[in-house]
Amino acid sequence: MRAEAQALKGHLDVLLLATLNDGPQHGYAIKEALRDGSGGRFDLPTGTVYPALHRLERAGLISGSWSVVDGRRRRTYQLTAEGHKKLAGERANWREFAAAITTLLEPGPWPTAT
Amino acid sequence: MRAEAQALKGHLDVLLLATLNDGPQHGYAIKEALRDGSGGRFDLPTGTVYPALHRLERAGLISGSWSVVDGRRRRTYQLTAEGHKKLAGERANWREFAAAITTLLEPGPWPTAT
DNA sequence: ACCCATAGCTAGGATTACTACCTATCCATT
DNA sequence: AATGGATAGGTAGTAATCCTAGCTATGGGT
User: Fold this and answer.
1) Is the whole model's pTM more than 0.90, yes or no?
2) Is the preceding peptide bond at B51 cis, omega within 30 degrees of 0?
């Protein structure tokens, strides 16, 4: 596994939802958006992206529809109303989570008040 | 599983190492330090903490020794030299990881320069 | 006498990202 | 014409790790 794999767990869904918040996209484009938007850090294999999208669709957070562009079939996804709500919640959740970790990671101990 | 469970995956080790950076501690005290230091957010079950400490010890990042305090046996852990190095690397890694996620989560799309 | 906090432990379950593999079209290079 | 890469989709099975649920044991409070 990639080293980043475990770190990403539980945070991939928000990233996918956030990407779709910029407008409907198909899976491959989402994968590229994450890669480019992260400076290459999140260059996820398709075996990660597609199953995750299926999961989000099953959960009713995104909805997909087939189309054909340049002879290639595409499945374009967009956020549902639920997906928008979920995204808002998860964004807030991330901020709190990140703040908590960052605080704990600050070098300590702090000087005890006397 | 707790909802936070997946989010924490891959980040627990840094938290444990960072806690031990404040001085040697035993498992139960580490658990409490994480709970209190996170405002209750990371109130981890012992079934999470102890196996993680064993993992870190096997990896040579911390070293433990038994002692008895008030009739209760304790296993006190401290960072090894490798553990200190690992902590420094993981701290830097967290900053980059968090920055990448936060950037991707910012509402977009940004206005395209013309 | 009982329960809770403290202190440690483990087996098995649940979740999720990854590896490795597959199909197919279009385009550029050989 | 043929080959390979980029695009676009997919799946089955593996690895990693956090949690649940259970256990032993001591000390202090009600």
Assistant:
1) yes
2) no
